Structure formats: structure tokens, C-alpha cells
Amino acid sequence: MVDADQQRRSTVATVLARALPGTAPDVPLAMAREILDVLPDLRLLDEARAAQAVMEQTIERVRVELDSSPWAVELPPPGTTLSEALRAEARLLRRTTATKTGAYAIGFTAGFDAFVRALQARATTVAPQPRPGVATDSSAPAVPDDRPNNVRLAVSSRVAGLPADPAARAEYRRILVGNELVRYGLNTGVNSTEMASAVADLVLAALPEIDTLAEARDALQAREEELLALWHRLAVAQADCGLAAAETRWRNALARELRQQADAVTPNAGMTDSFTIGFSLASQSLARKLRARADEIAVLPVPTDLWALPKHHDEPDS
Q1: Structure confidence by residue, pLDDT tens digits, 103-161
Q2: What pTM was estimated for this model as a whole?
Q3: Which portions of the sequence form the region Disordered (predicted)?
Q4: What is the spatial distance between Cα 40 and Cα 290, in angstroms, rounded to a whole number?
Q5: Backbone dihedral region of 79: left (phi > 0), alpha (psi from -120 to 50 degrees) or beta?
Q6: b/e per residue 197-209 (b: at least 16 CB within 10 A)
């Protein structure tokens, strides 16, 4: 996929090649790079769009978390280590899975036992980490840091530094591009400010988005305010449920262990005999149960960096 900067370089190079037909083939692209370097508005526009996309994904994640609250799920008591919790999950699997009958029953039972043994084996190697109690958890509840988004600040600063009048902005950019064209004059034949201005107008006409930086700033600020409000709501809701930082870390560590055990199961694409079919179906069935259990246990933590995309389930909490 061609990124926005590459696409712009190609567009500007095409404009220059048409406007300056006697130029050597490699010059327009080199000029395009130099011209875009003196137009930082476009780079900032790309950064604003990328930051907004991340915020919109995060907004959706936080909304889902709020909708699926209040994180009410049966868990072992405070003081239970991750190792003990994994053994408890293995016992739950043995108790809740129904006995299978039919041609693949032996394979199913073998697959079931192998899966549970793997979970029990992991319980012997996982790092000891006791679940905190409400009385012993000294970590503070999550409080979102409302520092402003750096990209929005950079865009706002650039917008404030540009001429407010549209005609004055256009002239300012025309001069920037024209200076680059004159600098390449020996290679292109651009030998006057009038000629440079005329070609610069063609270049800028091919980059109409350059004057949308103020709109990008406003959109970014709106998403920023929306996301900050959602993080505050989530922090309050989690605090009301006793989800201080240490409890959140323990729950997410347990959920991560369960997901990793589930993810270790891969479908047997070449299965044909009844034993293998039963074995594979048992493993996949238990993997689904563990993923569902992990989803119940996991908590979306309020991050230090509010503007970063929340970590995936298999990433450690900060």
C-alpha cells in the first residue's frame, strides 16, 4: 500500500515533469522530495489523521469495556497465586466438560486430558503472584492523566504560526515552493520568480489538502476530549468496583495465561481418523472455554499514555 507521502511525491513529480518538459527524468522526483520537505503542513496532517485513527479505535475499546462492566466474575480469594488460580481453572474445566460418546470418544478424552495437563503444567512454572486483597492493595486507583496530545499541540502550533488570511497563506506557500524551484533552476530552466510562481501554483493546486490543517486540529481536539471523558468514566467505574492497579494487573496476568494456553491449540487440518478428530475437537472446545473465561476476567487498564492504542490481551500491563 502506497503511503500518503509517497503518493504526494509522485503527484508533485508528475506536475513538475509536465510543467518543465525539458527536465531530465530523475529531477522531478528529487525536486518533489525537496518541495514536500518545506511544506510541513502535510506531514502534520498525516500525523493528525493517524492520531485521530488511534483515538477512534481506543474510544471504541473503552466504550466496549464500559458496556461490559461491572467486571463481576467469580475469582479465587485474595492471596491466591497465579499458579493456584491456574490449577483452579483446570479443575473447573474437568468439572464442566460433558462426557462424549461415539466413535471419537477415546480421542476426545485423550485430547481433553492433554489440554488440562498442559494447563496444570503451566501452573508449576508461572511466576508466583498473589491476588491482592482490598485491605492490602496499596496501589492507587487508576486516574487518567489529562495532559494534552502532543500531535494536537504540534498541529495547533503550526496553525497559529500560519497567516490567518487564506490569500496570505497561499502566497507564503507559493514563495516556499518557488524558492525550491529557483534552486533547481540550472536543471529545469526556471529562471525567474514569475515562472517559479506559476509552476508553484500548479504544484499547490495538486495538493488541496494542505489547507485543511485547522480542520484536522479541530477534529483531533474533539476526539481527544471525547476519549478523555471516557477514560475518566472508566477510572471511576473501576474504582467503584475495587479495581485498583494491583488487582487489575493480577486479573490481566491470569487472563493472559489462559489465552496463551488457548492459543497454543491449532486445528488439525489433515485429520481423517476418528481418534484425531475427537482429540482436535476436545482441544478446540476447551480453548474456546478458556478464551471466554479470559474475556470475563480481563480488565482494560487506564493507561499512563492516554493517546496510545490500548495493549492487546497478550501484552503485559505497564
Answers
A1: 678 888 888 999 999 999 999 999 889 999 865 666 666 667 778 889 999 999 999 99
A2: 0.81
A3: 126-149
A4: 49
A5: left
A6: bebbbebbeebee
